[in-house]
UniProtKB/TrEMBL annotation:
Keyword presence, Transferase: yes
Named cofactor requirement(s): pyridoxal 5'-phosphate
GO BP: any one term: L-alanine catabolic process
Species of origin: Aspergillus clavatus (strain ATCC 1007 / CBS 513.65 / DSM 816 / NCTC 3887 / NRRL 1 / QM 1276 / 107)
Assigned protein family: Belongs to the class-I pyridoxal-phosphate-dependent aminotransferase family. Alanine aminotransferase subfamily.
Domain of life: Eukaryota
Quaternary structure and interacting proteins, as annotated: Homodimer.
CDD domains according to UniProt: AAT_like
InterPro entries: ALAT1/2-like, Aminotransferase_I/II_large, PyrdxlP-dep_Trfase, PyrdxlP-dep_Trfase_major, PyrdxlP-dep_Trfase_small
Phylogenetic lineage: Eukaryota, Fungi, Dikarya, Ascomycota, Pezizomycotina
Protein name: Glutamate pyruvate transaminase
Entry GO MF terms: pyridoxal phosphate binding; transaminase activity
Length: 496
């Protein structure tokens, strides 16, 4: 298409039929990459549609979307208490028939009580709320954080958001003031971070995690990346930490967290702690960045006083798995009140996060307790999901251990395994002949042969000359794991 530029009128004259075409839209959008929903996911969806239309010529009878942490797409059942409350919030007329709710539908009284409490606060889930989120919901979140960490939390510092993604976007928009602005991002990472930085035309400053140390955070690697970026003229302003990790599943120790806070304090970096997997922990205990920061502030005078920390949580993960409802929050610690005022303004431009998602945040942070009518079923469902995830993680890990050329760190948390794969030279050549990276080639072949959709390691970043893929362990059953094992053996034999 021919495009000419008329300097007098400073407009582009476009000879095509449309004003917008692929070469004149925002280049930052084109530059952004998000592998989790990339080519593989598109092809997997095509296979799903073909199977749904009754096609019989595919070598598999179901597609397994192991590319994305989307629990309820993979048959995780919603927690009954949450959905009972949501159903009444959406249709409060049902509250006028408490007998029917109880006798016909088995809704316990605490469901009705919680719904009324929430409605007192939000009035209707169809109404806009306060831009930071409904006050009573923020009070509940503050109580949850206080109980979790043993340190106070102020509802004024809490911002409910439409999932953690929206919170990350808000924070990055505030942090990235100029194309020279940079943010330290772990590699491998969840591509939300690199994609958001691309959208903002800012710099991703990668720091590598240590695969051989269960994907731990290496503070030396952080300092080296930081020094290099600064020498190249990047104004490094923040560091992202994902704990527990995606795609790595790693869970950071209090010492690891201190190391990061030390760098942040010494180098004046805002810490963005993505803690959406805080309840998906199999090994050890979750320590929040907020708790560790408050401890250090008590133990060491002055050093940590000015650390700025934004921590994120979400209803999407954990045993809640309500990612379609888009609920989450972030908490600001140590921010200048004038910066917080600008953050408030920027969220207020979007009016408010989805109110039903806010209500789910409240239910997540304030679930039924022992003695409540819903407690028995809630804990049975919650523990069942947690144990099922752990069991599946271990089964997948065991399967990977048997596969030639595959190495995997023991699962510690989150919803993913991120094994490394060593492929034969012939497979590497075949990938190059197709103009693909070898991990992408492997994952496409896996999808074509088995219907199992995973994501190549290159979508998250990986050290040079290493190959990985990421799979969730959310899909029920073991048939799909057997499919991967069989495919892998055949693939390795084909390219020997
Ligand atoms: C580390 C991490 N942060 C944030 C998100 C996005 O979460 P939400 O659905 O709350 O936007 C995800 C989703 O997979 C994630 O893995």
């Amino acid at each position: 298409m021919t495009v000419t530029y008329n300097p007098k009128r400073t407009i582009y004259a476009d000879f095509g039929p449309r004003r917008l075409h692929a070469d004149n839209i925002n280049p930052s959008v084109k530059a952004a990459k998000y592998a989790v929903r990339g080519e593989l996911a598109v092809r997997a969806e095509e296979y799903r549609v073909r199977l749904a239309n009754g096609e019989k010529d595919l070598p598999f009878d179901s597609v397994i979307f192991a590319n994305i942490g989307n629990p309820q797409q993979l048959d995780q059942k919603p927690i009954t208490f949450f959905r009972q409350v949501l159903s009444l919030l959406e249709n409060p007329a049902l509250l006028e028939k408490p007998d029917v709710l109880s006798s016909a539908f088995g809704y316990p009284q605490d469901v009705v009580d919680r719904t009324k409490l929430l409605l007192d606060d939000v009035q209707s889930v169809g109404a806009y709320s306060h831009s930071q989120g409904a006050p009573m919901i923020r009070d509940s979140v503050a109580r949850f954080i206080e109980e979790r960490d043993g340190f106070p939390a102020d509802p004024q510092d809490l911002y409910l958001c439409a999932g953690a993604s929206s919170g990350v976007s808000t924070l990055m928009n505030i942090i990235c003031h100029h194309p020279s602005a940079g943010v330290l991002v772990p590699i491998p990472q969840y591509p939300l971070y690199t994609a958001t930085l691309s959208l903002l035309n800012a710099q991703c400053v990668p720091y590598h995690l240590e695969e051989e140390k269960a994907w731990g955070t290496n503070v030396r690697a952080i300092r080296e990346s930081l020094a290099k970026a600064k020498a190249e003229g990047t104004d490094v302003r923040a560091i992202v930490v994902i704990n527990p990790g995606n795609p790595t599943g790693a869970s950071l120790s209090p010492e690891d967290i201190k190391d990061v806070l030390d760098v942040a304090a010494e180098e004046k970096l805002v810490v963005i702690a993505d803690e959406v997997y805080q309840t998906n922990i199999f090994v050890g205990e979750f320590t929040s960045f907020k708790k560790r920061l408050r401890q250090l502030q008590q133990e060491v005078p002055d050093k940590y006083d000015h650390v700025e920390l934004a921590s994120l949580h979400s209803v999407s993960k954990g045993m809640v798995g309500e990612c379609g409802h888009r609920g989450g929050y972030f908490e600001l610690v140590g921010f200048d009140p004038l910066v917080a005022a600008q953050i408030y303004k920027s969220v207020s431009i979007m009016l408010c996060p989805p109110v039903i998602g806010q209500c789910l945040v409240e239910l997540m942070v304030n679930p039924p307790l022992k003695g409540d009518a819903s407690y028995a079923l809630y804990s049975q469902e919650y523990n069942g999901i947690r144990d099922g995830l752990h069991k599946r993680a271990l089964a997948l890990y065991e399967a990977f251990k048997q596969m030639e050329g595959v190495e995997c760190q023991e699962p510690q948390g989150a919803m993913y395994l991120f094994p490394s794969i060593t492929l034969p030279a012939k497979a590497m050549e075949a990938a190059a002949a197709e103009g693909r990276t070898a991990d992408e080639f492997y994952c496409l072949r896996l999808l074509d042969a088995t219907g199992v959709c995973v994501v190549p390691g290159s979508g998250f970043g990986q050290k040079e000359n290493t190959l990985h893929f990421r799979t969730t362990f959310l899909a029920p059953g073991t048939d799909w794991v057997d499919r991967i094992v069989k495919f892998h053996a055949e693939f390795m034999a084909e390219y020997k």
